[in-house]
């Protein structure tokens, strides 16, 4: 057993882990961070939600805490711990202020608060929660993770990479006193002790298909890709071994923009890698049909709702249909979050057009001069797609969607060529169901009592999300990680 006099061990060196380590070190703890991979700085996410950060105060952005907690509770049908929601609402601004003052500003960055949260319908209720990490308010700084790690190291935090958690160590009273780890290069196994506690920041389980089948089998029918190939669920499994409780129902964040080849069978298509696969236009509320060529839902909805609706459609995939004229009118749709047009969205109009050409070149997007030709290329019934498009154009001309209620400003006709179509499935960004924790981030056992010495934050910690992700609160997953990571680091030392 390695006795290096660590007070706190943090497992996972990404968003929650970086903030946890820094918070514990600021309180004087000797902190070790372990991570199973060789690097983690690229994992730090942009667009981070908060309530009442200094950046939001500068921008005049105000969010009613009670209204936001009520919305999040209702969105999850109260299958969440409201104490955790209030803990996040009351501490998220503080976490982002620490990030801006201690980490970003010394490196030439700052937070830019996004004030736009326009919506017209209850289904699209939105909040101006996002904070963007930027130097010039023209682009994101995607490399800010290295600043967090450097700040932690300056506080005395030690990082050991290529070090994978195998099991938690406990004493006779089941207090967690350390970790058993494996060196992923040499496969040597060793034990490391922690005087005050272990904080799990190990993420979800979206890359572990066995756990997916066990805990969230429908996600394999909703998603064509996962962008979290690290997420093997090992931290949650280790906690279960020492008696932890976890959420009984799944939660996840899915984007509706996973472009796949024509004819894909979702039952045998689940790609796990770091490539984007994001055809961002897929998150625009354009005409979408099922594999029979029928329109089947209101396309103006949170990202994940499309994948939920597809569980009732043949093949669980959708086909989006639009035309060249649409590409010059994208601003009309007024999308929010990362799908918004122009920064702080991912693409401008020119960027969307370039992405379209890239997917045309790959053969994922099909182009045609007629709807009949497009239907043939997409393996859709010609008569039905022709009928669907004609009827949709009538709705657009009338300015009222009498079928599914899409807002008038998001109705745009597909009435002249060239025409485009693409098959879309879900992209699983992360699973969000996890270990039961209290408002001090202590992991709870089957009786909802704290397991001494064990804490969790980020996507391995549950009780905060249920079912679909509320993407109209932009940056909520990232903020859930960094806010609760920082709280975990403070609480483990104060316990």
UniProtKB/TrEMBL annotation:
Keywords in alphabetical order:
FAD, Flavoprotein, Oxidoreductase
| Cofactor(s) required, per the database record | FAD
Supply the Gene3D superfamilies for this chain. Answer: FAD/NAD(P)-binding domain (3.50.50.60), Succinate dehydrogenase/fumarate reductase flavoprotein, catalytic domain (3.90.700.10)
Question: Pfam families this protein is in?
Answer: FAD_binding_2
One biological process GO term for this chain? Answer: steroid metabolic process
What InterPro entries does the record tag this protein with?
A: FAD-dep_OxRdtase_2_FAD-bd, FAD-oxidoreductase_2, FAD/NAD-bd_sf, Succ_DH/fumarate_Rdtase_cat_sf
| Top-level taxon of origin | Bacteria
GO MF annotation list: steroid dehydrogenase activity, acting on the CH-CH group of donors
> What range does the record give for the signal peptide?
none
Limits of the FAD-dependent oxidoreductase 2 FAD-binding domain:
7-470
Name by which UniProt lists this protein: FMN-binding domain-containing protein
* Lineage, opening ranks: Bacteria, Bacillati, Bacillota, Bacilli, Lactobacillales
């Amino acid at each position: 057993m390695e006795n290096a006099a660590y007070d706190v061990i943090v497992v996972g060196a990404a968003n929650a882990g970086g903030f946890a380590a820094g918070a514990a070190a600021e309180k004087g703890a000797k902190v070790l961070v372990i991570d199973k991979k060789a690097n983690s700085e690229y994992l730090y996410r942009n667009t981070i939600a908060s309530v009442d950060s200094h950046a939001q105060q500068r921008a005049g952005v105000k969010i009613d805490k009670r209204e936001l907690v009520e919305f999040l509770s209702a969105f999850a049908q109260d299958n969440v711990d409201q104490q955790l929601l209030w803990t996040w609402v009351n501490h998220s601004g503080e976490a982002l202020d620490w990030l801006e003052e201690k980490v970003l500003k010394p490196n030439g960055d700052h937070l830019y608060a996004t004030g736009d949260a326009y919506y017209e319908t209850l289904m699209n209720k939105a909040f101006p929660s996002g904070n963007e990490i930027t130097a010039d308010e023209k682009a994101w700084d995607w490399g800010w993770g290295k600043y967090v790690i450097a700040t932690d190291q300056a506080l005395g935090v030690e990082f050991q990479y290529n070090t994978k958690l195998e099991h938690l160590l406990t004493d006779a009273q089941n207090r967690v006193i350390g970790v058993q780890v494996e060196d992923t290069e040499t496969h040597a196994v060793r034990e490391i002790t922690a005087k005050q506690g272990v904080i799990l920041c190990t993420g979800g389980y979206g890359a572990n298909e066995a756990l997916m089948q066990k805990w969230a089998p429908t996600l394999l029918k909703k998603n064509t890709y996962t962008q979290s190939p690290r997420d093997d669920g090992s931290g949650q499994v280790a906690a279960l071994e020492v008696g932890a409780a976890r959420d009984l129902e799944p939660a996840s964040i899915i984007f509706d923009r996973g472009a796949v080849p024509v004819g894909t069978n979702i039952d045998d298509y689940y790609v796990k890698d770091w490539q984007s696969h994001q055809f961002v236009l897929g998150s625009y509320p354009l005409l979408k049909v099922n594999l029979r060529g029928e329109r089947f839902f209101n396309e103006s909805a949170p990202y994940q709702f499309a994948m939920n609706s597809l569980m009732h459609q043949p093949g669980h995939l959708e086909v989006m249909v639009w035309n060249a004229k649409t590409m010059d009118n994208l601003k009309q749709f007024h999308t929010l979050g990362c799908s918004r047009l122009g920064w702080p969205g991912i693409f401008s109009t020119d960027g969307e057009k370039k992405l379209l050409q890239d997917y045309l070149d790959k053969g994922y997007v099909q182009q045609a001069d007629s709807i009949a030709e497009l239907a043939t290329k997409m393996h859709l019934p010609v008569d039905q797609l022709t009928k669907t498009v004609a009827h949709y154009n009538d709705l657009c001309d009338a300015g009222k969607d009498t079928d599914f209620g899409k807002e008038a400003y998001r109705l745009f006709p597909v009435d002249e060529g060239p025409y485009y179509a693409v098959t879309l499935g879900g992209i699983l960004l992360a699973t969000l169901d996890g270990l039961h924790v209290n408002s001090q981030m202590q992991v709870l056992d089957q009786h909802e009592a704290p397991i001494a010495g064990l804490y969790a934050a980020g996507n391995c910690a549950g009780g905060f999300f249920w079912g679909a992700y509320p993407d109209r609160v932009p940056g909520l997953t990232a903020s859930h990680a960094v806010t609760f990571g920082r709280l975990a680091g403070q609480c483990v030392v104060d316990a």
